[in-house]
Amino acid sequence: MARMEIGLYDVLDQAQMESHAVAADVYDEHIRGAQEAEQMGYKYYFSIEHQSSDVSFLSSPSVYLTALARATSAMRFGVMIYQLPFHHPVRLAEEVAMLDHLSRGRVEFGAGTGVTYHEFLRWNVDFDHRRAISQEALDIILMAWKDGSVTYEGEYFQFDEALSTPEPYQKPHPPVWFGAHSAASFEYAAKKNFNVSQNIDTDPVIADKFETWRGLWREAGHDTSMPKTFLTRHVHVAETDEKAREQAEPHLATAAFPSAVPAGKGQDYIGSTRVGYGPFGMRGEDPGTPERAELRRTFRERAQSYDFWIDNGIALVGSPETVAKRLQEQHDLIGHDIFCARHLFGYIDPDHAKQSIRLFAEEVMPALS
Questions:
Q1: Which pLDDT belongs to residue 1?
Q2: For residue 255, what pLDDT is reported?
Q3: 209 CB neighbour count, 10 Å cutoff
Q4: Cα 356 → chain centroid
């Protein structure tokens, strides 16, 4: 099994926005953090797009990543994921291709559908058709990168020789990742020869899904090397297990630990709006599929139990020795190629998060086999 490559997963969430006077300060601080992480040996940097959401305020990923590209020189980076139903596919193909040039070929293209119902409701995008929309959009993006011209007659998009420039810096194009949760998404990614990423399910569930995807990929008969797998988890490292837990526990599930939220912070901005979370609640709690039921269960348990985070590998918390051991065990189970650590989460003290990043780089990374 190949050694993991390590990256930083950095989310510009509600806590980050509340702790700064203006968004410009948030962007500057996180770009400085990426520069420092690059110097420490982190190989990747990823964030995540959301629209009309307090989960992530990275509403224009390509703009932010362009600034990051010019501030770094070696680390590979991207969004895991761009929510394809919210994008014009030819425009997105051009943006990512240009970003690929501005970074001299360091872009990783993370694509997916999104899972939060109210975001689609607010944009008048059909939630039930999000997978079909995404698949059309991704076909168009790949066509634009390959041919520089798109003539396409689909159910959701139609183009008559739309010219797309520039062609990507990387050949034939930036690596494509698909954020997969459902069985249908993994089957699609295997058929299309895409890398796959995961960030929510428990370790045993992800291990099973990745192994199923590998089998489906082999059955598809591709003549290339097997694509890669990506996992991101919350990580907090301190000098001792006890100190790490004390610093991290309240912030892994702030809904269950309101005392950890600073006064006047943590307001439910979405729930207080006219549209709110829509008719199905915060997590789209319609009857849905078994995968969506498992997703809801995981979110529910995470909000109620610190032990659930730890026991299921969703968070790695402890001394450098403990985190290295747990990360190695996780890798032995799942076999992922890239691991991205999210050190800044909830309302955790930024100084504690910075110390975690340093300890992870200096003591955890060298201990991995």
A1: 63
A2: 55
A3: 22
A4: 20
Residue found under tokens 């099994």: 1
What's residue 286's pLDDT? Answer: 55
Instruction: Identify the three-state secondary structure at position 126.
Output: coil
What pTM did the predictor assign? 0.94
In degrees and rounded to multiples of 5, residue 249 shows phi and psi of -55, -50
Which pLDDT does position 89 carry in this prediction?
A: 98
Q: What angle do CA 322, 345, 54 make, to 5 degrees?
A: 155
Q: Look at the domain 5-367 and name its fold.
A: TIM Barrel (3.20.20)
Tokens 């899972």, residue? Answer: 115
Cα R_g (the chain), whole angstroms: 20
Q: How far is CA 210 from CA 5, 79, 181, 338, in A?
A: 17, 20, 10, 13
Residue ranges per structural domain of the chain: 5-367
Residue type, 351: D
pLDDT at position 292: 73
What region does 210 belong to: left with phi over 0, alpha with psi -120 to 50, or beta?
alpha
Cite the DSSP H helix spans in 3-102.
14-18, 23-40, 61-71, 89-102
Q: How far apart are CA 361 and CA 369, in angstroms?
A: 14
pLDDT tens per residue, range 45-65: 999 999 998 888 999 999 999
Q: Is the pLDDT of residue 24 over 70?
A: yes
Question: Which tokens sit at 87?
Answer: 């994008």
Cβ atoms of 228 and 335 closer than 8 Å: no
Q: Rounded CA gap, 259 and 262, in Å?
A: 8
Per-residue pLDDT tens for 264-288?
777 788 888 999 988 877 655 555 6
**Any idea what DSSP says for residue 80?**
E
